[in-house]
Design goal:
- The chain contains 14 helices and eight strands.
- It is α/β, with parallel strands linked by helices.
- It has a four-stranded antiparallel beta sheet, with helices on one face.
- Strand 6, helix 14 and strand 7 form a beta-alpha-beta unit.
- Helix 1 runs antiparallel to helix 2, helix 1 crosses helix 5 and helix 12 crosses helix 13.
- The longest helix is centred in the middle third of the chain and has 23 residues.
Length: 336
């Protein structure tokens, strides 16, 4: 599948309010060639990151808004605009490849529309955006409600926070202690021609100089490493795990911390991992299986202890409860 089409289909689910990008994108990534997965991810997440700006520009360029049934065409247009404004893709390729995807959507009528709007954007986007950026929503690509909150807490720094949120996130790995120490895995990366350095705070963390397809990393399929932000990696060591402990991980999906607990202390008596939605536990099980680990997974509300707790005590409890997620905006930007 064309990476632009895959990104647009993932984004269409977001624009329609049917899914988050984190849930809609993996299905589409499975349909593109391995060499195109990095581009597909960049197009999807980059477009989502700048969606307020791109949508404002599209609204100015269009004669009338898209119908709800044409969210896929709208998403394709935004992907095209993202390429023109924020990537090094040559304009002729960005426009031609994007317009060509309309046939795959079985909406050939959209080809002329996409071509006209993207070519006009190529000529006029700088002038139009200069005017639109009087609105801080367009300028910062952050919704007004979030700007209001940031201004209340950080009146002098809120725009710098928005800029940081818009920056490309680093790709950070977590080395599985059951297979390698960090120094040994760094050597494997060097042998593979990949530049990396140890993270300053997590003893298992590695920062890649350039992001890459995780499937090409040494030992990924064998469970030698996982992708996880450094801050999330700190939880395992903060719990001060010891052999024989029974550990509860409440709100566990997608399972990064659950797996890290088991990697960090092989002598745990058991790990019970809970999440409210059963479908989210599928991803947890996949991560556990790839890493060769096991935990007792339960789909329930952790507060309803009568429905899941067997009465046995836990020596450690990790509670990463659902929250605003403002700390990971740059990695999980979706339409607002």
């Amino acid at each position: 599948m064309n990476p632009r089409l895959a990104a647009a289909r993932a984004l269409a689910a977001v624009l329609s309010g049917k899914a988050s990008l984190n849930s809609s994108l993996p299905t589409q990534l499975d349909k593109v060639e391995a060499r195109d997965r990095g581009l597909t991810q960049d197009l999807a997440f980059g477009t989502a990151r700048w969606q307020p700006r791109l949508s404002a520009l599209a609204e100015r360029l269009l004669q009338k808004p898209f119908k709800a049934a044409d969210a896929d065409v709208e998403a394709l247009l935004l992907v095209g605009l993202y390429q023109l404004l924020y990537t090094r893709v040559p304009a002729h390729a960005a426009i031609g490849e994007t317009v060509g995807c309309a046939d795959k959507l079985k909406k050939p009528w959209a080809k002329a529309l996409l071509n006209a709007v993207l070519r006009r954007a190529q000529r006029e986007s700088s002038e139009i955006l200069a005017e639109l950026e009087r609105d801080p929503v367009v300028r910062t690509a952050h919704p007004r409600w979030l700007q209001k909150s940031l201004k209340a807490f950080w009146p002098e720094q809120w725009e710098a926070i928005c800029a940081a949120n818009n920056a490309h996130p680093p790709m950070i790995l977590r080395v599985n202690r059951r297979h390698h120490r960090r120094d040994a895995y760094l050597e494997l990366l060097r042998e593979a021609g990949l530049e990396a350095q140890p993270c300053p705070f997590s003893q298992d963390g590695i920062l890649l100089t350039e992001a890459c397809d995780v499937r090409g990393l040494p030992g990924f399929d064998q469970g030698w490493i996982s992708v996880q932000d450094e801050a999330a990696q700190l939880a395992a060591d903060l719990l001060d795990l010891a052999p024989g402990q029974r550990v509860l991980d409440a709100c566990c999906a997608p399972g990064g911390k659950t797996c890290h607990l088991l990697e960090a202390q092989a002598g745990l008596d058991a790990v019970v991992a809970i999440d409210l939605e059963a479908k989210r536990l599928t991803r947890v099980r996949e991560n556990l299986d790839r890493l060769g680990l096991d935990a007792h997974l339960i789909a329930c509300d952790a507060r309803d202890t009568a429905s899941w707790w067997d009465g046995k005590g836990f020596q450690r409890i990790l509670l990463d409860a659902p929250c605003s997620a403002t700390g990971v905006i740059r990695r999980t930007r979706t339409s607002s």
